[in-house]
Please model this.
Amino acid sequence: MQSADSFGAKGKLEVDGKPYAIYRLDAVAKAGFDVASLPYSLKILLENLLRMENGGDVTADSIRALAGWNPDAEPDREIAFTPARVLLQDFTGVPAVVDLAAMREAMRKLGGDPARINPLAPVELVIDHSVIVDVFGTADAFARNVEIEYERNRERYQFLRWGQEAFDDFRVVPPGTGIVHQVNLEHLARGVFTREEDGATLAYPDTCVGTDSHTPMVNGLGVLAWGVGGIEAEAAMLGQPISMLIPRVVGFKLTGALREGATATDLVLTITERLREHRVVGKFVEFYGPGVASVPLANRATIGNMTPEYGSTVSIFPIDAETLRYLKLTGRSQSQIALVEAYAKAQGLWHDPKAEPRYSERLELDLSTVVPSIAGPKRPQDRISLADARQAFHGALTLFADAAALPRQGYDKAVEETFPASDPPAYHDSSRRSAPPRDFSEEAPPDDSRPRRPVEITASDGASYTIDHGSVVIAAITSCTNTSNPMVMIAAALLAKKAVELGLSSKPWVKTSLAPGSRVVTDYFERAGLTRYLEALGFHLVGYGCTTCIGNSGPLVPEVSQAVGRHDLSVVSALSGNRNFEGRIHPEVKMNYLMSPPLVVAYALAGTMDIDLYNQPLGKGRDGRDVFLKDIWPSSGEVQALAESLIDSTMFRDGYADVFAGDERWKSLPTPHGDVFAWDDASTYVRRPPYFDDMGRDPTPLTDIVGARILARLGDSVTTDHISPAGSIAKDS
Model:
């Protein structure tokens, strides 16, 4: 569709001798608007309006309203945003594909060609939400978990396999490959999108919407993206724009650089705390300033991933030299990288560390002030300095050990209700606000008299041990939040190596697991010879998927589960995920702490939260001496050197070469063929929707609905998880 181009914005850009058509932002500046000082994210929206101007959904007045944005105004002007592509995961994406299949059948019944029904925007679906940690701690854990996954989800997978073959512009990343947001970051994202239009190649910013709240992870790459509901995503698939208000934009200035020992996880937990305090729900957050250059792309992605935890719509970084370095590292073509650089510089999207764009609100963080941290036990914004972790645990335990789960309100409630599908929170600001961040240190008893309830357990092998309130029963290196970051993953593996060499081991009551977001992670572990050290501590590969982060943690060690239930113990999970409200990680685990992967390993060694990792030993080495965290913690230089020697673009190019093909299990899956899906009337999962029954070629005019009865009266913040619960549902619930 040709743009009306009221501003004469269509121009040319030549990159390495290849011409591209682009819609120039400076054309709007020539009309008297201050485009240069617009936030990065609004410049991307402005280009979208210029390119999609049609006199209907997008008018010249829409463009003027955005170009003349008043940063102090409250959002009141609606615009229509058309994303370049749509990203789905298997929990929330299947219904959208079912609707497309139903449309094809309706087309056939009306005498039309069903093959004409296809997405009008490119759609990519990644299967990652279904694998469960049923088996752990063994060399065959991954293979057995995948086998069980296929048994449970065979019907859904057959349907998606059919869709992969039947629809144009619809691609499926099969099970056992990776987590949607990490695959998006490492492979699917383009930075700059292209398509053919009137004999020319049109270049424009890569943007997307996804049916998962953590879609903004790709904001770290400079790609404007956020999570939407299934209906919005389906509309976008069919070429419809998404209606939105021009947002307020919060500028978050970064200065300095992280100190030795601080990780990307520590940084994102600090930012989460700051932004929840500031209240950014419904706003865009944009990082800028001289400190941006010192933030590696993987760290930027970690920050973008936790966008829904602090409530903004996006948390975006601009394009700079670090963006190009990451694109090169992950195997993008040289021509694509050159296009991203040339386009960003031509459109004023290249980061200037000295620039001060106009923002609605401003925050600032000196990166050198970030300290090692964890967050919990029930909210991601409750950041705790690692130095205070033991005291904070005592305070939290005093409050929660024998108390019922605290009621949620405000944005906390909205986030909790996205479990386990991780669909975007449904929230509108109200007078009932969430409690401010806290670390519970002040609630700790002054005399170390925290609640205790020791229980002796006899394991299946006859060994005896004691667990208590605060025992770590799950230690999971999980979630694309951190597994996409080679620095923290290599740090975890090096810590494991040093621990094993000194004779330490994980405690027997801890369920350990490793579930990276892509196969590249296990490739560089293997290349470095580090896999065996993680496995020696029980961190065997259990799957490439969300697993523990979305509650697919599987059963606890059986005797531990019995003791926890019988004695009502407040036990702990330590995980490298993004959410930790009670019941999300495991229904039997009341306290959940978010932390970096190396700290997950450390707490598996300790087996309890009741430890000061700076001053108390993790255990005794084989020589009988105490081993402290400082004895096994790798330096940032050590991690950096190993990362640079291990990771190169061939790992990503090879790893993603056949990413849509799948393994033999996927390829051999019995699948219907043809333009129309063969519905199984006996199915209890994939059923033909009745929306188009009795629909004629000319739709019946709308009339009043008379005599209808209410099926369900629902309150605020109702999500798809209330309508159709996913995950494990206990028989006694």
